[in-house]
Amino acid sequence: MTDPTPRLDQRFSDPGTQATPWPVTREALEHAQLFWITTVRSDGRPHVTPLVAVWLDDALHFCTGPAEQKTFNLAANPHVVLTTGDGHWDRGLDVVVEGEAVRVTDPAALARLAAAWSAKWDGRWRFQATGTGFAHEDGGRALVFTVTPAKILAFTKGTFTQTRYLPGA
Hints:
Strands 1, 2, 3, 4, 5, 6, 7, 8, 9, 10 and 11 form an eleven-stranded antiparallel sheet that branches. It is globular and about 55 Å long. The model has no long low-confidence stretch (mean pLDDT 93). The protein is built from three helices and eleven strands, in the order E-H-E-E-E-E-H-E-E-H-E-E-E-E. It is of the alpha+beta class. 31% of the residues are buried. Strand 2 and strand 3 form a beta hairpin. It has a single domain, classed as Pnp Oxidase, Chain A (Roll).
């Protein structure tokens, strides 16, 4: 998603508005403290839950416990939607990332991601990279996933715009 071309959807945007520039949306992804992930249960029902994630190398990365509902859902269907934003209707920016969650097991990638988590939250989220994911200081384990965006939508509020970014666009 390196510098994708933003595309304003005029159907859902105020007249005379401009698309949200990619650097603004990228900054929102980099600095968001909380995301909501939507996965699909085996019976087709959606499952939504909050989590922390990091934006690194043009992708979102998250972790989850091996016995959590997200993990079971992802084993059957890797399609996810991650959202972040502001709870106000008349100001702020909301961002939606669609893609497939792919498990990360490469030790070098896991070590780099563990460092990114620690740096983003001033050391409050500390993980050790293992051969299967992350280990918590308390002994807990987490699986790590990467979502390379298939599509990103940005919703600017106040002056309302809907901007779409596609990989390679």
